[in-house]
Specification:
117 residues, 6 helices
């Protein structure tokens, strides 16, 4: 599964906004990052990047290491947990979603590789 497909699935199934999906994928596949580095990689300004990253923390996609540094938790957990929150917010019964499960599986190797450099 390529990152464009994963990004598309995060948008369609988990209901992330496109920039949220990009930032989630960036931190998941590259490892812990500062807001400045995320902003530079994505091409956003600092304030917008910080706002999106903090929203992802609230949504369970990232954790904040400090006020301006973020890390992703294991993608098998975060993909399902974000999907569960989406279901709760939209009054949809939470059930197994193979597309969401496959997001976590597809990102697992990239996640591990970024953290064992």
């Amino acid at each position: 599964m390529n990152l464009e497909k994963i990004e598309s699935d995060l948008i369609s199934e988990v209901k992330l906004e496109p920039l949220e999906a990009k930032i989630f994928l960036l931190v998941t596949t590259k490892g812990k990052m500062t807001t400045e580095k995320i902003a530079k990689e994505i091409g956003l300004d600092y304030v917008q990047t910080l706002s999106i990253a903090k929203k992802l923390v609230t949504f369970g996609g990232l954790i904040d290491i400090s006020e301006s540094e973020f890390e992703a938790m294991h993608p098998r957990f975060t993909a399902v947990n974000m999907y569960r929150k989406t279901c709760t917010m939209n009054n949809i019964k939470f059930k197994k979603n193979l597309i969401v499960d496959n997001i976590g599986v597809a990102l697992e190797e990239l996640y591990e590789r970024a953290r064992t450099k």
